[in-house]
């Protein structure tokens, strides 16, 4: 009997151990899978919010975006576009409604992934920088400073711009070409293939360096100013603009507008040089792209410094700000709409993390 009791107790113990191990394995398995799926779903929703925000904001200002590029690259000795109002009227008269939105499909194909990567990269870079900053200072309650936000925004801008740069190049070329251009790009993939075959793979990254340099103050200042201005409004509550920790949509639009104005003004000359380097050497755009005033042929640039030098020598310092007016009119609502759209879509999708978080 004693022997049977011992065997029985051992059997019960073994069964209990097996059941416990099974339960632990199940819990461990569920504990790993649930957060993993939740994290992936959250990332997808965050990327979707950024992409939608980019597409909505860029489509809203597509005519001004096209006019800006045409002003940036037009030959100063054969002027077609002479200001914002005249330029828009000329496009409408010569090309109609389709002309106003030419290149917008390509632009959205570029800006949707670009915006998705940019917003997501900013959030991830902000979390990483904040963690490192708290480790260095030993203050677990420390918050991001404007300078650290500038760094996070710069990282996000460089990553997003580099990932989608070939799309930006062909978007610019499709936007610039007209019905009178000797040869036509029939679409995004045709343009990518044509540039790759006729000009080589390096041509897909023409103007990349000034883009990298320009994106640091542009995107960096956009995020830094937007977030810092929101924080200041929440803490000080001037003119009753903030209720508790929430800002109205109109107030957020105002923050985005201020951020966009500061960022684009600082980085604009680099944007002009980037666009001209992208068009340089494109033989089928001779009637549109800047020339030397004698042959009316597109100018070749050996690099960023050479592009600056030739632009200033042929057209003066003012050429570095060609298209600034339509860009200013465009960038203010564009940046504002992008930020607000992003936060609204994240609210709709139920993403808990906000940019400030």
Question: How do the strands and helices of this protein lay out in sequence?
Answer:
Elements: H1 2-60, H2 62-73, H3 84-100, H4 104-137, H5 146-163, H6 165-176, H7 188-199, H8 208-236, E1 242-243, E2 246-247, H9 249-279, H10 304-315, H11 324-349
Antiparallel strand pairs: 1-2
Helix pairs in contact: 1-4, 1-11, 2-3, 2-11, 4-5, 4-6, 5-8, 6-7, 8-9, 9-10, 9-11
Folded structure, characterized:
This protein has 357 residues and is an all-alpha fold. The N and C termini lie far apart (67 Å). The chain has a two-stranded antiparallel sheet. It is globular, with a radius of gyration of 27 Å. It has one domain: Mitochondrial carrier domain (Mitochondrial carrier fold, Alpha/alpha barrel), CATH 1.50.40. It contains eleven helices and two strands. The longest helix has 59 residues, at 2-60.
Q: Structural class per helix/strand content? A: mainly alpha
Could you report the average pLDDT, rounded to the nearest whole number?
Answer: 76
CATH level 1 name? Mainly Alpha
Q: How much strand content do the residues show?
A: under 5%
**Beginning-to-end CA distance, first to last residue:** 67 Å
Could you spell the SSE succession in H and E letters?
A: HHHHHHHHEEHHH
Kindly state the percentage of residues in helix. over 70%
Oligomeric state of this protein:
single chain
State the fourth-level CATH superfamily. Answer: Mitochondrial carrier domain
List low-confidence stretches: 1-11, 14-19, 24-35, 286-293
Strand order of the largest sheet: 1-2
What is the 3D form?
globular
DSSP summary: helix tally: 11
Described by strand count, sense and barrel closure, the largest sheet is: 2 strands, antiparallel
């Amino acid at each position: 009997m004693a022997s049977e009791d011992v065997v029985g107790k051992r059997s019960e113990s073994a069964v209990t151990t097996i059941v416990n191990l099974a339960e632990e394995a199940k819990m461990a398995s569920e504990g790993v899978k649930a957060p993993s799926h939740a994290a992936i779903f959250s990332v997808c929703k965050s990327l979707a919010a950024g992409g939608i925000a980019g597409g909505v904001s860029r489509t809203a200002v597509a005519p001004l975006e096209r006019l800006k590029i045409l002003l940036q690259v037009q030959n100063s000795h054969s002027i077609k576009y002479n200001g914002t109002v005249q330029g828009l009227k000329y496009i409408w008269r010569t090309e109609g409604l389709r002309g106003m939105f030419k290149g917008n499909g390509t632009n959205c194909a570029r800006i949707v992934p670009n915006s998705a990567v940019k917003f997501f990269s900013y959030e991830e870079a902000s979390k990483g920088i904040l963690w490192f900053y708290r480790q260095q200072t030993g203050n677990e309650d420390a918050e991001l400073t404007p300078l650290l936000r500038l760094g996070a925004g710069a990282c996000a801008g460089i990553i997003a711009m580099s990932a989608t740069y070939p799309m930006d190049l062909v978007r610019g070329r499709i936007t610039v070409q007209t019905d009178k251009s000797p040869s036509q790009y029939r679409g995004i993939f045709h343009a990518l293939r044509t540039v790759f075959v006729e000009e080589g793979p390096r041509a897909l990254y023409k103007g990349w360096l000034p883009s990298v340099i320009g994106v640091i103050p542009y995107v960096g200042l956009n995020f830094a100013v937007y977030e810092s201005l929101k924080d200041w409004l929440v803490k000080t509550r001037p003119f009753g603009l903030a209720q508790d920790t929430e800002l109205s949509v109109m107030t957020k639009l105002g923050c985005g507008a201020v951020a966009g104005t500061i960022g684009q003004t600082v980085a604009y000359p680099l944007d002009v040089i980037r666009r001209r380097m992208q068009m340089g050497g494109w033989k089928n755009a001779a009637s549109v792209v800047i020339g030397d005033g004698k042959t009316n042929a597109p100018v070749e640039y050996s690099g960023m410094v050479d592009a600056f030098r030739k632009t200033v020598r042929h057209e003066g310092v003012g050429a570095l700000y060609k298209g600034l007016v339509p860009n200013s009119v465009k960038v203010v609502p564009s940046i504002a709409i992008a930020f607000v759209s992003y936060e609204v879509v994240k609210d709709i999708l139920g993403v808990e993390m906000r940019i400030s978080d």
